[in-house]
Specification:
Structural class: alpha+beta
Helix content: 40-55%
CATH superfamily of the largest domain: Regulatory protein AraC
Order of helices and strands: EEEEEEEHHEHHHHHHHHH
Strand order of the largest sheet: 1-7-2-5-8
Shape: globular
Number of domains: 2
Largest sheet: 5 strands, antiparallel
Length: 308
Amino acid sequence: MEHREYYEPLSSMIADFIESDDHRFEVRMHYHDGYEILFFEQARALFRADITICDIADGDVLFIRPYTMHTAYRFLEGPYRRYYINIASGILEQFARRMGMADVVEALSERPFTLFHTGREQALLRRAHERFESIWRLTDGKRGRWQERTQAELVLLLSDLADSAVRDSAYREPARGNLHFSRMLAYIDQRLREGVTLRDLEEEFFLSRHYICRLFRQHTGLTVSQYVNRKKVILAQQLLIDPGATVTDACYGSGFAHIQYFSKVFKKVTGMTPTAYRKAAASSERSFWTGEGADDREEDPAPPKTID
């Protein structure tokens, strides 16, 4: 599947709803350059964001900040009903400032994601369902004053989440295999700018190449090099948001050693060249959905060979 750019005239916002009698597929680890808010009306699964793992149950709401690598996986048998909202970061932040809710968005973004067990409070669960259902139908139908009404529903939704007393602060401890994997992710984050290879992981953690590759495929759907390159691209995207940053700054600042290779990988992951992304970020007029749905059947472009 080729990369596609997803955006809507209203503040680059997407909303959808999925319903299935037995939802068992697994999503590759991915990220967005906008905020993501999900309401799991019915679901049983595990959710991973970088090195953190938590359980997803009926009525849970996830607020995920931009550029967070994440995936839901290990869905258990049973019905699945999920609402989804993705909104460009610059647009939501501008909207929050205008509505006097900048502190709310800032508080919700302190961690890569925040989990709310709205199913534990019937009143909150009912309001969450009403908000997500309304936003989905408004953005799908686009009738009347749908933009103003959608913004009003967003205000109510953010207010409910900010006032909620059912946030989850106790996340699942990784099992043995997950513990190895979590430690490798932390190691990659610490040394991202220096560059991390499969051999580095083998030598650092005294694990076999086969075992490491199996862990990455199991938990992310990616190879080690694909995962590392996506983390570098995330860093590059964040650097390119700065109007004063150049493509060269983003290349070397994110750990790439060659401009040409950086541009090739950046476009493969995001569907855009670094220059095009920089212009889009400066204008704040569009939001690009990145990562999920990428064609990961092939490796990322091979880096140029260097002479030792």
